[in-house]
Amino acid sequence: MNIKNIIKILSGKTKPGQKIYLVGGFLRDVLLKRKTNDLDFVVNKNIRDFVNSIALKLKGKVIILDDRNRIYRIIVSVSDGKVCNLDFSHMQGKNIQTDLDRRDFTINAMAMDIEHKDIIDPFGGIKDLNNKIIRKVSDRIFNDDPLRLFR
Question: For FRET with 120, which of 7, 68, 100, 137 sits at 20 to 30 Å CA-CA?
Fold first, then answer.
């Protein structure tokens, strides 16, 4: 099993009206040509059922990271003998734009619709990566969550 196959399986498991986005650090690392086995996804609805069905299909183990905020992890083995962490969180806000607006830096505030493979980059994260700039998404981000300064 490799990451491309995992994304294909995820795309094939969506229900009508359900949207799955690959977000954050994985996209950044791919654009920087770095290898990573940690993938983060945002799901707009029915996240728990979706995560359980994916874990079953991938023969992975589900870990509840935060049940109240609906954040889950699936741990699966990949073809190179390593472990892959698939983290799933429920979409914050009414759409992916609103969810991305809550992130820390522009280079982490990108998403890919796994069905259509469209890159969503509302804050210029790709441009900032190319220019080697780390820029916050908004002025309020560290006021809302001061611990982000240490992550």
Answer: 68
CATH of the domain at 47: 3.30.460.10
Q: What is the pLDDT of residues 96-110, one digit of tens each?
A: 999 999 888 999 999
Strand order in the sheet with 83-90: 61-66, 71-77, 83-90, 38-43, 20-23, 111-113, 119-120
Residue 99 CA to residue 111 CA, distance in Å, equals: 10
* Residue 53: exposure state from Cβ atoms within 10 A (0-12, 13-18, ≥19): middle
Q: CA-CA distance, 4 to 75, in Å (whole number)?
A: 16
Number of domains, the chain? 1
What's 57's DSSP letter?
H
Q: Which domain holds residue 113?
A: 3-150
